[in-house]
Amino acid sequence: MFIYLTQCFFFVLQTEDIDECKLPKEYPCYGVCTNTPGKLNGCRPKDKFTLALKVVTGVSVGVFLSVFMCFWLYLGLQKRKLIRTKQRFFEQNGGVILQQQMRSYSSAGAGGFTIFSKQELEKATNNFAADRVLGRGGHGIVYKGVLEDKTVVAIKKSKMMEEAQTKEFAGEVFILSQINHRNVVKLLGCCLEVEVPMLVYEFVSNGTLYHYIHGKDLKAEITFDTRLRIAAESAEALAYMHSSASPPILHGDVKTANILLDDKLTAKVSDFGASKLKPTDEAEIATLVQGTCGYLDPEYLMTCQLTDKSDVYSFGVVLLELLTRKKALYFDGPEEDRSLVSCFMKAMKAGQHEELLDSQVRKEMRAEVLEEIAHLVMRCLSMSGEERPTMKEAAERLERLRRYQRHPWAQADDNLEERQTLLPMEQRDLPSMFRQDVLDLEECSTYTYSM
């Protein structure tokens, strides 16, 4: 019984309420002190989340949400603006017309041309990185690209384009894409959703003819047969564009930098940056003369009319570069010797044209071939377009000369008629030493030279 009463006494003592508000030292309180019966500590702890902090937090969250919504809205507007801009450029560059042409051609079984997006080409070139640059020119920059299917391509990013060219671009570029010739760089597609359209070509591995003949290793030998073959292949490509393409196509900027070489040194004419369809109206005049100094047809400069004979003149300069291994324009020498064409004309007058040729060519070229090829160059470089040969004629002549260089008729058992076909019409049945009338390009008069 005693033990039970003692336990009850202790229980009463333990359950006796303590007013902790009266004992602040023993029961410190940081908030509003409220005594709660039956509890040891009824003091509410200090409220760390004050009203001011609540207001600041609320305002901060509101501002953040507002900024986030504005930013999201801005991104949405920018995206819509970018889409509208791309669509505007696409339509402006004739994308709708091009799509219609592609559909009609694909239904006829002639496809292979692709309209690329800007994003695809950026990805292919690592955002047009500097280490992807293959070359720079008057019309733009060419980049090496790798498409998603691992196809290696050359992407030309042009600098500018005339308004008239922009209107005609889609139609002309599709016609160019239909050219299928082993000596013409294949146009694979284009990108129209940029201000100036980009062109996508097949990649040709060995660089340009310019770098091949004027590169760092000038001591490297280039056989005369290789030079003659490259010239013949280039002429054949231009002849195809002039005569076999429908409609005929004029290149407009023929030069060694626009002739590429593959791994077998096969020539491929490239860069149709200045090219255009042959005008049906002969009176059509260019508002802007395009081309490269040293290769430009003087008649084109005077009349502003680009013709197939303008390409012939430029090709004549290329042929001269191949034979001499000298640049079309050489600014390090005296002023009168800066033009390769001018130097050749003066050398022809003085009968010293052989000295202008590269030592390798002089060593390998036969005398009869020298006579023929010098005459061909002179005709190509004539001031009058009417006196120049067609590219088809030049290609055939070069191919005959190449065959003759390899198998001279003087050492063959062919009959006279077969031998004569290797010579030009005006030289048949003539002695090997002969005289020819050639137009003086500087004085516009006729003079004679002996070979």
TrEMBL record:
Transmembrane segments: 55-77
List of residues binding ATP: K157
Gene Ontology biological process terms from the UniProt entry: cell surface receptor signaling pathway
Membrane topology recorded in Swiss-Prot or TrEMBL: Single-pass type I membrane protein
One Gene Ontology term of the molecular function aspect: protein serine/threonine kinase activity
Cross-referenced SUPFAM superfamilies: Protein kinase-like (PK-like)
Family: Belongs to the protein kinase superfamily.
Domain of life the protein comes from: Eukaryota
Cellular component terms (Gene Ontology): plasma membrane
Signal peptide stretch: none
Residue ranges of domain Protein kinase in the record: 128-410
Subcellular location: Membrane
Keywords: ATP-binding, Kinase, Membrane, Nucleotide-binding, Serine/threonine-protein kinase, Signal, Transferase, Transmembrane, Transmembrane helix
Name recorded for this polypeptide: Protein kinase domain-containing protein
Coiled coil: none
Record-linked InterPro entries: Kinase-like_dom_sf (IPR011009), Prot_kinase_dom (IPR000719), Protein_kinase_ATP_BS (IPR017441), Ser-Thr/Tyr_kinase_cat_dom (IPR001245), Ser/Thr_kinase_AS (IPR008271), WAK-like (IPR045274)
